[in-house]
Amino acid sequence: MRPRVRLRWALRLTSLVVLGLLLYGPLFVWLPVTPGFVRDRQDLVVVLRRPGGEVTAAQGRFGAAARVVETSLGLSFTQPVPIVLCDAWSDLPRFMPWLPVNRSLGARTLPVGHVVYVTPLVRDRADADVFVRHELVHVLLHQHMPMMQRLDGGKPAWLIEGAATFFGNPGSYPAGQELRDRAKAFDVGRLLTDGPGAPGGPTLFYAESRDFVAQLVERYGADHLRAFLASYVRDPAQWPSAFAQSFGVPFDAALAKFAQREGL
């Protein structure tokens, strides 16, 4: 095959791949026209859903949820956030073909493009806006973070997930005596340091991260947490020094007291 012919076929193949990604893949939300989906603008978010279905009360509160997140974190969204309502689990491999389908997942946020996908598990729930609020915390932090930290998922995990759970859906995880009883068998300090893969698992990690953030707010005030977040998103790698500057105590010392159930 001559070079010119090979080039022509390569261009055709590339065009087909790009067209597929646009119409049936992760770039779908950025099309000016989204076949099979309608767009509903709600203040700071754009909800993409299939036409004909009823918009639930919770889905109608997505825009208000974004405003709450802005106020809570002390940051502003830099662009509207696409929120895709998935009717079927098959929508997930369509829009995110490189990720496995997790049927226990309520929603998922992509760090590039800042798109929130709401799964069939919570799509029509009366508290769907609560789950979306959790994801919007991720989006808002991502929008202000350098690209490499976004792709890395954001570190430290206790802050990323703790803030999202505290401000988003604090009631979704164990609390109080139930949480203390479940945590007795585990090293809470190691869990928050190592992340949800450490002994104790994701549920305990989210609950303890939420409570650590809650105690920071209770002890030092919401303004100190917002100041910490503002420093964090500018340079996530320097979060330990930003923590000490914002709260007046090193992270390791604060975590040790928290893990010993002494408060902060």
Description:
With 264 residues, the chain is of the alpha/beta class. It has twelve helices and five strands. It has two domains: 119 residues, Zincin-like (2-Layer Sandwich); 113 residues, no CATH class. It is 52% helix and 8% strand. Helix 10 runs antiparallel to helix 11. The longest helix is centred in the first third of the chain and has 22 residues. The mean pLDDT is 88.
> How would the global form be characterised?
globular
CATH topology of the largest domain: Zincin-like
- Number of helices, counting only DSSP H or I runs of 4 residues or more: 12
Instruction: Write down the overall mean pLDDT.
Output: 88
How many structural domains can be distinguished in the coordinates?
2
Name the CATH architecture of the largest domain: 2-Layer Sandwich
Helix proportion: 40-55%
Distance between the termini: 72 Å
Return Rg in Å: 21 Å
> Approximately how much beta-strand content do the residues carry?
5-15%
CATH domain class of the largest domain = Alpha Beta
Spell the H/E element sequence.
HEEHEHEEHHHHHHHHH
Q: Can you list the strand order of the major beta sheet?
A: 1-2-3-5-4
Structural class: alpha/beta
The counted number of beta strands is 5
Q: What can be said about the biggest beta sheet?
A: 5 strands, mixed
Which regions have little confidence, pLDDT < 50, spanning 5+ residues?
none
Task: List strands and helices in order, with pairings.
Blueprint: H1 3-24, E1 38-42, E2 45-49, H2 62-73, E3 81-85, H3 91-95, E4 107-109, E5 116-118, H4 128-144, H5 147-151, H6 157-167, H7 176-183, H8 188-194, H9 201-220, H10 222-234, H11 239-247, H12 251-259
Parallel strand pairs: 2-3, 3-5
Antiparallel strand pairs: 1-2, 4-5
